Amino acid sequence: MAGLIKNQILKHLSKFAKNVSSDSVNVSTLKGEGELTNLELNETVLTDLLELPIWLRITRALVNRVNLKIQWTKLKSVPIAVSLDEVQVEMETCSELRSHQSGSSVLPSYGSGGRYGFADKVIDGMTVTVNSVLITFRSHAFHATFQLSRIVLDSKNPLWQKADLRQTRLKDVDRGELLIFKELSWQTLRVEAKSTCDQALTPLRLITNQARCRITIKKKLTDCSVVGCRLVLLMDDLLWVLTDSQLTAAFHFIDSLSDLVKQAAQESQKTKAVRKLESLPEFQVQLAQQVQQARGSGSSQGRGSSSGGSSSRSSSSQSNVVKVFSKYDVPETSYHFYSERIDLHFCDDPGPGRSSHPDLSGGAALQVTLAQLEIDFYPYHLAAGDRGHWVKYSTECGPAVWAHAALAQFKTLLTDTLNSSRSSHTPLARAPPHTRHDTPHQSSSGRTAATPPGDGVAQVSPLKGVVATQLKKLMSSCCVLRVNDFCVYRVSTSKRKQTPKEFVSGDKGKFKLPTQVASLHLEFTVYYFPAATDFPVPPPKLYLQLNPVQITFDPLSILWLNSFGRSLQRAVLTDPPPPPSYLDVHLEAVMPKVIVEGLGEHSNQRDRPQTMHIQASRVILSNVRPPDPTLPGSLASLATSLEAAQQGELFFASSFPASSSDFQPICHKFVRHATGEDNVRSPPVTDSPLYETISNMKKDALWLQARDILFLHCEPLWVEFFGVPAARSRPVPFVDAFPVSLWMYIKPKASLSVATTIAESCEGRGPRQQGGEGVHSEPLGRTYKDEEQLRSGSGVEGQKPEAAIHMFAHVPSLVSAQLNHYQYLFLMRQLDVITELTSYLTYDTINILTHPHMAGVALARENLGDTLVLAAVVPQVDVSLVMPPPHPGKDSMAGDMESFLPDSSSTADLHDLGSPSCEVRNSASDHSIMQKVIEPDACSVTSDITKSYSVDQLTSPQPKLGTTSVTRQPSSTANDPAGVNGPMMQLNLHGNLNAGFTSVRKGLTSGFTNLMSTIESAVKTSPEDMSDTLSVRSDLSSDSDNFIMVNIETDRTDSGLGGMDALFRVDNRPATSVEVASEVFEEPTPSEVSDVTSSFRRRDVISVVTFKLSRVQVVQESRGYESTVKVQCCQMVCEECSNMGYDEFQSKFSSRCRGWSESMEAIEPCCLKLRLDTHAEALGAEEEPPCGISGAPLPMLIRPFLKGEVADLNLTLMMSTVTNLVDLIEDEIVPEPLPMEIMVERVGLRLTEDRVPANITSPGSVPTEVWLPKLLVKRNLEGVFTLLPQKEEDKELLSIKKERDKLREDLRQVRQQMNQVLAENRSLQTTLAKMQEDKERERSSRGFSLPKFPLP
């Protein structure tokens, strides 16, 4: 009996093991026990059994001892126990990919191939226990070892609990399928990897605690083949400490395998994807529909009635087993990873890679905490299929909506492209006219009108039928990453021993979002066709959605991240750099917030804020241009921004404040992108027959638009101060809400021009080839006729150089701000922090990337890519400076002055007022302030605060995406000649831009303020706050639709999740729905507002002066340590009010943007131009370095210089306002003198004395008028001002000079065009001469020649 059993064991074991003999098998028949020793497993069968990827193979597998325990009488309920002592496995990468052993079959080499029976149940239910497993992995770049201890493979029930063996399987006889539930767990895992070709790379080590892998296998009952699998890896809390050298090693290890993995993925798409596609339920339904439609309508109806009766009978008799099977079914193969908490600690290694800041020179560490990290991978998903069965996935989330819209857009593009290839002489099929539903008849050219694709297979049009049939086979490989909550702590150093504080973290708690909503949701999708089908597919897509997140501005953390990232960049850099991949990127952040903390404690300053919050309702970052021209980020919106830039001469002029050595402010790439001339490839040729066109189209045939321009859109953006004691912890507005769009282009590097290479690349991992570098952007120096005309028309001498990074910001609405003295001090200290931060950032970047003694590639100084240009256009900036009243002791005047402005409910004239202002009489005799005395009413303020916020004046008429709900009103464009706020015009850049640039020569007088007013205009805010301010902010950003999109189905039943709750062991807490926006933002009800305003209103009386700057243009250039800021504006108006109520000012301030329109066009323009240049100087050997705001010595000595021009400006101010302005800009520390040179020309100043005279006998003051025809104001490094009168030039002489300059410029353009024509003529003559020589040479080769005649 024992010998018979031995023979059966040897018979089956010989499939898995080699050199098995009866001596190595000990069997106790009655006890049901057996032992095998020193087994060498079959590598081929084991590789097939484990379904290893085709780029990996097992070379050796040994088992020292195997114990078996079989309960013969309970085989149906008790599994066979197999115990292994030690297992050693050796595997290596394949130099060439392995071929699939089974070909297109899904049957394993060890299977019987028969119907699923009792023996298969026993084998599938076995329990395997392994004491230790040692896996050795070898590749050409590194060796790795994996040590696992206490491994257990057990069968579980669908709830993943221990149960009877019969409860660990679910069977559906009607489907002919079976579900098996297995769990693989281990106690510890130790991973160690070491490079074999570069000994300088640090070994990589990782130790994990207990983990379990839950596997759901779906088999066919007919042949036991595996149809699908769901694998879930559950990790315990993980703690991992990584240094930059270990990250570098990890990158090299992954990079060495990337090519093999990519080839294997492509191979699996050709083989496995075909089987997976046929097994998908959705595809089977489509095939069934095709079969029914292929048959006659009569038989179809008969079958329909028969199948309907059978389906009704089956549904009525459906058992609970079938329902449970559907609940835990595996529709498609998927892989999942889940960890409750992961703590990552990043440390920097000693050496020159550390930051030079004194607090970071000794090293620092950064902690990253991820809570409930989930990674889902679906390699074989039907692109048009439903995602409802995906694990914990909502089909209404942002990435799902974006992916569906992108696929529909691709279908439309493909149909339109193929439709243009239809021709009458080669029709694909001919159908009677009455069968065509898209058009009443076919045109003479054979073309049919295109209809939306995807209407089913019953498309009569051959084109639609081809497209629909082909797209039904389109598959996708999707990876989904979700993080429920995360936190990046600030860097910790030996000097910073305080409790770790948050640097970047999720902010779901403040908005009371459901716990199921992930703070971070990322999707990466790649599309493909199974088998070797070469047909156009959508480009790869990367979607990222960030729910409320806050960032705390911390200079040390930013410096550490910069040095840490630069060290990694240098270590992994290759020369030449790899070609950029074509990828669609779309990022959306909901309610992001940046917190800027103040320096020090100022308990005696009640109006001094502690923090500043920069917030936005939604931020979109994308490199994809939507087809709808009304949406932000479209080519039409870029054209609108360029049109706005044409109206200012700063971007295209060579006169002051511009210089010939400056960079081009507006990159030519933006113009080419707006006109569609930077496409990466030409559209497919469609003049061939349809079949020929399809056969010639590759998978990337429709990847046309360039993807190297990023678009950032904030809707809207606002700034507030917090922590003001006088405001009782309520927010104080600083900058009112406004939308902003930012376009960014990073020029790719063709080569790094390496200065020196320290570490040689590993053998077999040479530098990547450069092919395709020009795929995304053509060289900017190519001939471009219109751009050359634009440059010549703007007066630029030749072509200006372009920076490595170009950014262009456009604000289509009013930017309104307020500022008091203590907020000004807060901003000045932050300016000192930013100055120190930028100095160290620049120094660390240059030092790390060019250091000759660091591992990796040392870059040349000119190839660092540290040149940047930021250009911005703002139609109007209003800065309200809040100051104490001129008569603070006379409170009795407050009752008359606080209601000076019209009632808050009337906003029709706010665009004329702009800010709380007064009606000023300009006559010298009776210069007085006309006051409108109205009793203050709390209800009037409340009505203004609680009304819905409308942003029709804030944004150009572009409808918001589906995630926002904004009350829109029709906006008038009568006063909008620029078209910035009007409907999107049909822009012809070839004509309009040229005309706009040429018209710049005719002159737009422009202007700006002095340095202090410039700083103040950028940082205005109110000194104190009232309770209504929060209501204004809440009303601004509390549209509930902003957050409905993150309301993932929280009340989804367990069956809706497909039984995934038990699979992931997620606590099923009661789901809380998203609250209405008023509750999320704590927006008070009208009754609550009345109570709050009555008890919390501030009765302060203030003095306000508002500066209105129209058509502001700003350009900032950076070249390493050097930088230049150029500012220019046209028209400036000053409005002042000496006494008014603080609460009324805040109510008017919140309504300013709603009533804004460009009404300053009629005002006589002025000219204000500023240019601030900063350059760095090296410190001498004995020179003491200056210290920054933190006390750290600055690495370089920064020398600023200000130059400006002020012309045609008339101001009328009261003496109390001038005195208050001097007090407002007074700093708390003694600043370094700023050298400057200001040219003042035709400037008038009228000063009116409104202060109480010191003498009671004073008859009254007479206004003082000052006229400066032309004056040069200089200031040196010692702070000494010098006034130099200049000779005033005659206006007629100036006009003559301007006309002469214009003629010279026209002459220069004509000469330039003549030179170009002459060069083209010479080129044509050379080409003609060569052609003539070729013809003569051809004739001579034939044996005769013609007589030569000279050319005329």
From TrEMBL:
Residues 950-975 have a biased composition (Polar residues). InterPro entries: BLTP3A/B (IPR026728). It comes from the Eukaryota. Residues 1331-1341 have a biased composition (Basic and acidic residues). Residues 308-317 have a biased composition (Low complexity). Residues 294-317, 421-457, 763-796, 950-977, 1329-1352 are annotated as: Disordered. PANTHER family: CHOREIN N-TERMINAL DOMAIN-CONTAINING PROTEIN. This is UHRF1-binding protein 1-like. It comes from Scylla paramamosain (Mud crab). The lineage of its organism: Eukaryota, Metazoa, Ecdysozoa, Arthropoda, Crustacea.
